[in-house]
Design goal:
The chain is mainly beta and about 110 residues long. About 5% of the residues lie in helices and about 55% in strands. It has a nine-stranded mixed sheet. It is globular and about 35 Å long.
Length: about 110
């Protein structure tokens, strides 16, 4: 499933925020990796991504994070959640964790370019 990503990067505070375009808030916030937080809506679906200290967490430069070409992939089944983030077509971060969050089976591509 493809969704539109609305993202912003605050260079001064080194914070990346991404929100799914048709979502209005979230009801829970889960740490899926050190420094990466996934906001979930009332249907247990991903609604937002927050990354404080983004350049350090993602091990990339602040200038790369300012790009508007961001894609986030979230794949989930009953046992695992996989999160991938690409900027300008390059994979900048990928992680896999246990799905202890109640997120249903899904395959999301959240893209700024939709």
């Amino acid at each position: 499933m493809e969704k539109r990503l609305i993202s912003s990067y605050d260079e001064e505070n080194d914070t990346f925020v991404g929100k799914i375009g048709d979502e209005n808030g979230y009801v829970a916030d889960y740490g899926i990796s050190k420094g990466i937080y996934l906001g979930i809506n009332d249907s247990n679906l991903p609604a937002a991504v927050l990354i404080p200290n983004a350049s350090k967490v993602l091990n990339t430069s602040k200038s790369v994070l300012e790009s508007s070409d961001v894609r986030i992939g979230i794949d989930c089944d009953n046992s695992c959640l996989t999160f991938r983030m690409c900027i300008e077509g390059l994979l900048v971060f990928s992680t896999k964790c246990k799905n202890n969050f109640g997120i249903p089976d899904l395959n999301y591509l959240i893209d700024c370019n939709l």
